[in-house]
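pasting input
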Amino acid sequence: MVDTESVAEIIADANEARRALFDLELDLQKEIDEIRFTAFQEDRPLTDEEKSRRTQLRASQAEVRDAHVELAYVTAARLDNSEEVKRLRQRMDEINHGLSDDLEALKKIEKMAAKAARVADTIAKIAEKIAAKAASLVG
Amino acid sequence: MIRMRPSKFFLSFSLALAICACSVADLEKPVTDFASATDNAAKALDQLNTEVTSAYAELVKKRALAGQGLVVAPTGDCLVSSDRCRLQLQARDTSVQALTPDPALRKMIALMSAIRTYAEGLEAIVKADTAAKVETSVNATVGSLVKLATTAQKAGGADKTASIDVSQYATPVGELMNWVFGQYIARVKLDGLKRATRNAKDVVSAAAGVFGDATSAAAAVPKAAMAAAVSKRVDAFDDNRTEANFNKLVESAAAFDQMLVAKPANVFAGLVTAHNALADKLQDEKLSLAVVTARIQSFAEEAQKLSKILNALADARKKQGD
């Protein structure tokens, strides 16, 4: 698997494969529908031979569906490994770093205000003690 | 005597802050809803990753059990001195596939997780109770300054003690300080939100594009299972026309139709629309809040719809396996 495929290339490949699988599934379905419609028009159930043929066609359809599953996994994995995903992850990490900095800035404002309150409280208490001391000396 | 003289500068500064119009509070609900919807979209992508990887692993297992491949270890693996033991299934044309495949969307899950972190970061900023905490501190500071002023007044002596109640200044001063700090904090929040959403706009759009492509590809897995279920029900009804078989046929087709119409990739188109609305609102307040809310709501609904469908599929797959 190539690590630096572009998203556009990967999607183009997948679409081409998907179209081929769709055509195959459609052809198989048409054959199944023909068998069913013939029996319906003749107002009779399917013969054993027709049922056997239907089973074979359904098995082929199941293989086509398995191929869809495999294509889905391979395409998803190729997209996952694209350069685009790697680049976008780096950009998002930078943006999230910026947001963390903004939250830190808000916390700093809180801390500054809290510090100012503690300083003012300390000064007020010291002043009260000094005043009380001075009053006791004068008294 | 303590007197506060508002300077011309101070008034101008306060007015400048007031122009930010304190729109951060208005954005709290849309940002919170966006974060919640992004979380659901991330979970849906995770579920899809599980579905596509599990389905592929089942396929490889089925091929191994059917003898359609030979179980091999890559050269050098699974020996006493090996670093790894990673078994593979080798087909007759010598092509190989991992016996236990890695998750298909590992890096995209990590990218979506980074976007979820980003949405949570926006929410944390908009909800930060900085103003409330600062108000507590400002009130305490003003209280201490009043105490200090009173102490200083008393120290001036009985003849210096005038009938001035220092505390009459404290309330308006405290309120003014809280208002100024509140405006400043709102500005810091708004600038942070504007910067982040502006920077993230292209990234979220591009990421959602890749997620949409991956989702469209991965959606073939549940579609294959549902197409198989409909085929099975058609044959069962053809062979035995009972009401029960008819109902099961109709039910399976309806479920498949719902999946096809839902278009799983819509979730990520919704993510872009919602994020763009939020970013645009922050840059240019002319965009109405109602429009922003509606777009985020639409995104939230798509994420829930996809999640519901994938949950139902996962349950159906488990029942089939039992």
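fyi Chain A touches chain B through 61 residues (CB under 8 Å).
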